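Consortium newsletter contribution from the modelling node. Members have asked for a concrete example of what our holo predictions look like. Here is one, prepared for the arginine complex that several groups have been discussing at recent meetings.
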Amino acid sequence: MAKKLWGGRFRKELEKSAEEYLQSIEVDKEMVLEDVWGSEAHAVMLCKQGIIADRDLKEILYWLEKVKRDFQKGKFKLSKEAEDVHMNVEGVLIREAGKEYGGKLHTARSRNDQVITDARLYIRRQILDIEELVIQLQKTFLDIGRKHLETPMPGYTHTQDAQPITLAYWATAYVSLLMRDLSRLENAYGIVDTNPLGSCALAGTSFPIDRRLTTKLLGFSGLHKHSLDAISSRDFIAETLCALAINMSNLSKLAEEMVYWSTFEFNLITLDDRYTAGSSIMPQKKNPCVAELTRGRTGAVYGSLMQLLTTLKAIPMGYNRDLQEDKPPLWNAIKTVKSTLYVVNGMIGTIKFHEERMEELAGANFTTATEIANYLVIEKKVPFRKSHEIVGNLVATLVEEGKSFKDFDTVDRVLKMSGIGISFNDLRDIIDSKKAVQAYKSEGSTSPKEVAAMIGEFEESIRRHEKGIKQRRERIEGAKRLTESVVKSVLSGKKIKSIDM
Ligand code: ARG
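And here is the predicted structure:
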């Protein structure tokens, strides 16, 4: 067995079970390209600063590029014996270029700053992908909104009929809340996007490194300056997990609605066959399994956040091996959130809304009672608390007699007992749910005019977010191109002093 790269101080080899216990390659295999990029930036900087020679750099970059190519072809396999991605990549250099060259890459670097550099590079990309998926879902809701500005549906509180709203109003509520998910992700990105490389083990280094140069080559928007803080902290992962957990909480709200809206009893929607599943015994069944699993997997993402926070609790300053456990919960959460957003978008985009049923329920079960109370306030000068009582009593009588607001004679009779006269036409107009939604004209209300205006504002916000995502992607791509071009120049024999960067 090959000796460990850190093996000098040891007289015995690691016990097999301990070796297996320590290794993290299943998790690290996600970060091979990031490890190569980080290593290339570091090596270029070392040479630029005169810490290693041009010849060393050329050798190092040659083998790092080989790792990259092998990985892309699926030929780079991480070995458990080498412990983690960093030792696996460096191991290739030591093996192929020998310690004389490959052994110089780890000058002025520690796995402590290396691992968080890799993780930050990786998470940046993941957050951008997730932001895009959130925007896709928002766009699907906006499509529903644009089509159904005037479609009435029942609005609920306590899952009980409350007041008529429009389908567009419901759909845009999700656009509105997802906007904050986007902001949280963007905020997390800002915390992730600082360069810890050059912090070394904990105290910085006596070598004359240039941390600004690696910041540039890796496309970070800033330097994570305090080295001890940088290598000790994982709040960038907690912040990301927090944003993901809240996002799942929002998706679970939606999932819950899809589950009961599609029941025979509610009958507000039909979910597309492609997003439902059958029963192995009951032939008639069509189950909302995608929505249920969205609801069900929310717990796992909350769990990931709790798992990390618990790992981080009371960890003293400095790198502690516990911190290796930061990635599994994040990786799991990222996977779940991405697949959930993708499939939920498909489910929502293919819903068939039962407009007739929605309209029927929108005006049923006394949902316009508040509007009758408001009418008494405006037209009959009754104080609201009093009109609330009058209409409450009216509803109780109608319920007792098995009637509704449509039974004009009964409504008229009961209101007269409180000294109120109402015309047939007035009552008909008040209890018309289509007219009711037009009447709610306060800012941010369900009226078609307000919702149309909000749709315009949401479109504008989405454009801003998209622009932000594009700029962040360009920054990453630009830095990657810069590193690649420097690597290419070095490999073609150019001296580092002659390369602009
Ligand atoms: N595999 C380790 C991790 O994920 C890398 C850092 C190891 N550092 C150390 N001092 N042993 O945290």
